[in-house]
Q: What sequence folds into this?
């Protein structure tokens, strides 16, 4: 099974720019590259921060583009999103307990797409309702492989500015994963960095966004936006395991376009 992960679009209204870049133009480039090379994908998961400030015009621009996109998609939310504005534009997207989260059952196992948005805050949270929902969905999948997608990583990257805004309920998330199910991999967004590893026995990956990226800073805690090639992930899952390829899709890079702005909230 092939899944494409796209994350951190940070869309703005058509004609606007963000950090000197064109988020909609870069999304168009990503979608064109995926359609050209991965039309056989089972699914494209957009793992949050669809809009930069939750503007309805940004969600409407996304909807217009996805209407012409040939691969099935699932949309998730991140800390830059607005749940109400998103749901007004995408009323058909599955919602559980008021949160934009769902499961996708496949021949290779269960995908759980988890809503970690804590409206108005940068770090992610899992309230009691979301933890109970996760617990139930994992219990249902007993005996089957499970793959979890969420915007905020529960794991530390040893990069202070990013670790401060991870999923704060990391231990509750871990406990749920350990109680139930065979969780094979955790896929995250949010950090705008390509990274893989293992955390408490769970393998994970995260990747660059489609617009700006986070500076590669392990020491200062003063992160900044930078321009590095935007990317999407090609995820290949079978009975033998999980392989994640990070692919830098073609765009024109302009190192002078992006000021080293502090990482936005």
A:
């Amino acid at each position: 099974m092939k899944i494409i992960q796209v994350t951190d679009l940070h869309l703005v209204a058509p004609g606007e720019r963000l950090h000197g870049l064109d988020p909609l133009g870069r999304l168009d480039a990503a979608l064109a590259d995926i359609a050209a090379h991965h039309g056989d994908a089972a699914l494209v998961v957009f793992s949050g921060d669809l809009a930069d400030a939750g503007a309805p015009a940004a969600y409407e621009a996304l909807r217009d583009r996805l209407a012409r996109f040939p691969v099935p998609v699932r949309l998730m939310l991140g800390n830059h999103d607005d749940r109400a504005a998103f749901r007004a534009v995408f009323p058909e997207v599955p919602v559980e307990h008021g949160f934009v989260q769902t499961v996708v059952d496949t021949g290779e196992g269960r995908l759980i797409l988890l809503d970690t948005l804590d409206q108005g805050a940068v770090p992610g949270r899992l309230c009691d309702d979301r933890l109970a929902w996760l617990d139930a969905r994992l219990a249902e999948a007993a005996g089957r492989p499970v793959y979890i997608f969420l915007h905020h990583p529960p794991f530390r990257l040893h990069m202070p500015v990013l670790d401060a805004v991870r999923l704060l309920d990391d231990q509750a998330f871990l406990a749920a994963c350990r109680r139930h199910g065979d969780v094979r991999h955790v896929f995250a967004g949010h950090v705008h960095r390509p990274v893989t590893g293992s955390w408490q026995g769970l393998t994970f990956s995260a990747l660059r966004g489609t617009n700006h990226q986070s500076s590669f800073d392990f020491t200062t805690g003063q992160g900044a936006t930078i321009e590095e090639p935007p990317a999407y992930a090609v995820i290949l899952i079978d009975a033998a395991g999980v392989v994640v390829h990070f692919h830098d899709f073609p765009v024109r890079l302009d190192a002078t376009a992006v000021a080293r702005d502090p990482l936005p909230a």
Remarks:
- The chain has six helices and 13 strands.
